[in-house]
Amino acid sequence: MRGVAYATTPNPTVDNNKKEIAISGDTRTGNFIAEVTYLKPNTMYYAKAFATNTEGTTYGQEISFMTLQSHPVLTTNAVTAFSFTSAKTGGYILDEGTPAYTERGVCYGAAPNPTIDDTKKVISGTGTGNFSEEITGLISGTTYYVRAYAINVTGPSYGEQVTFTTATYPGEPEMVFVQGGFFVMGSPEDVQFVVTLSSYNIDKFEITQAQWVSVMGTNPSDISWGIGNNNPVNNMTWNDIVGTSGASIKLNGTTYYENGFIYKLNQLTGKKYRLPTEAEFEYAARGGAKSKGYLYSGSNNLEDVGWFKGTSWYITQPIGTKQPNELGIYDMSGNVAEWCSDWFAPYTTEAKNNPIGPESGSSKVVRGGSAGNDAGTCIVYFRGDRVGIDAHGGYIGFRIVCNTE
After folding, report:
1. Which residue segment(s) compose the domain that 282 sits in?
2. H or E segment and range at residue 105
3. How many Cβ atoms sit within 10 Å of the Cβ of residue 22?
C-alpha cells in the first residue's frame, strides 16, 4: 500500500486521514500523485507520503499547505411590501463562507447589477438562514434592482438579481424634460439679457385641486374662480406651497418646510420637487430648445393655447384643455398665473447662469397670465404682478420642477 497521510496537526500518520494510491502493474518505484478531497477551506494541513509492507509503514518528509478561503453562498429573496418610498427585501445565507462573513445586507439601485459601491442596507445577524429588513428613501414610480450580499475576507458575494417597481403616488405630477441651453430673456421693449440653464424637468400641467387635496387634505380654491378636481388649485399663498415651520430642506436657494405642499409631496414620493425659477418658467414657456419664437406659449394665437378673460368668462378651466406648446407643456399662458421661487427685482443686462434671483425681497414673481387677465399678460416674457408671500390669489396657482440628476 502507498499514499498520503494528512491531518490538521503536525506528524500525520495512517491512523489519521489517508489517501491510498493504487500500484500500477509491477512499477513500484517512481512518482505517484492523487487529489485529496473534502478538505476544509482556509485551514492548515500537514501531509506525508507513506508506503507499507510486511515490515511496517515508512513516511516521507512532512509538508504543509493552506487551503483557500471560501466565499459565502447566498440567494436574494423576493421583494415584498413595497410602497411609494420603501420596500422589504433580504436574502438567505446557504453557506457562511470561510472565514464566516462579517457583514450582510442588500445593495440596490436604478441600474442593473448593483454592488456594495451603490446604495446598500446592512442587516445585522450571523449564521445561515433568512434575513430581511425594510429599505427606505426610495423614489416613487421607479424600477429598482436589488441583490443580497455577504462579505468575508475574500470580498463580497452576491445573490441573484431581482427587480421591483415602487408604487406611483396618485397625486404625483407628470413631468416633461427640458433640455438645457441658453436664450434671450425679457421683453424686446424693455431689458433683455442672455440666460444659460441646466436641464430640468417641469410639470406638464398646473397643479390641480385634486393633487393639492391628496397632499394637504383640504381645498383652498375659491368657487368664484372655478371649483373642480381637474381645475388648477388657486387661492393658496406662496407660504402655503413652501411652508413656514418644522423640518426643512433647501433646494436651489429656497427653503421648503414640512408644513408646506412641496415638502409633504417630496416626503410622499422621495423626490426633490421645487418651484421653478422665473428663468426656468420663461424658458419652458418659450418652448426651450424647440422654441419656434411664438408670442404665447405654443402659438401666436392665444385662443389656441390659453384661457384668458377673452375666452374663459373669468373662470379657470380644467387643465390641458388647450393646445400644448413645443415641449408638450400646457397652460403656460393663461388659466392661472403661476408662482415662481424668485424674489422680485428689476432686471439687469449682464448674462446669467442658472439665476435664482436675489436672496431676499418683499414680493415674489408671478408668471404666465390667467383667466382673469387680458392677452398682454399671457405673453411668454411678460413679468406678472409682484405678490407678497402671504397673499391669496384667485387667479394664482403653480406648477413644480425638479432637477434631472
Report:
1. 175-403
2. strand 103-109
3. 9
Sort strands 364-367 and 248-251 into parallel, antiparallel or unpaired: unpaired
Does residue 170 lie within any of the structural domains?
no
Compute CA distances 127 → 75, 98, 139, whole Å.
14, 12, 32
In a domain, 336, yes or no: yes
* 271 and 351 both lie in a single domain: yes
pLDDT tens figures, 294-318: 999 999 999 999 999 999 889 999 9
Name the domain boundary from 143, 165, 187.
Answer: 165
383 touches 402 (CB < 8 A): no
17 three-state secondary structure: strand
Residue 42: left if φ>0, alpha if ψ -120 to 50, beta else—which one? left
Asked whether residue 194 falls in the same domain as residue 300, the answer is yes
The model's pTM: 0.81
Return the CATH number at 57.
2.60.40
124 plus 184 within the same structural domain: no
- Angle (nearest 5°) at CA 53 between 48 and 55: 105
The CATH code of the domain that includes 85 is 2.60.40.10
For residue 1, give the amino acid letter: M
354-371: pLDDT as tens digits: 999 999 999 999 999 999
What would the mean pLDDT of 204-228 be, rounded to a whole number? 93
- The answer to whether the beta carbons of residues 87 and 136 sit under 8 Å apart is no
User: Count of CB atoms within 10 A of residue 252's CB?
Assistant: 18
Q: Half-sphere exposure of residue 369, counting CA atoms within 13 Å on the CB side?
A: 29
CA angle 156, 158, 162 (to 5 degrees): 150
Cα torsion at 64, 67, 68, 69 (round to 10°)?
-120
The secondary structure of 161-208, three-state, reads CEEEECCCCCCCCCEEEECCEEEEEECCCCCEEEEEECCEEEECCCCE
Q: Look up the CATH number of the domain holding residue 243.
A: 3.90.1580.10
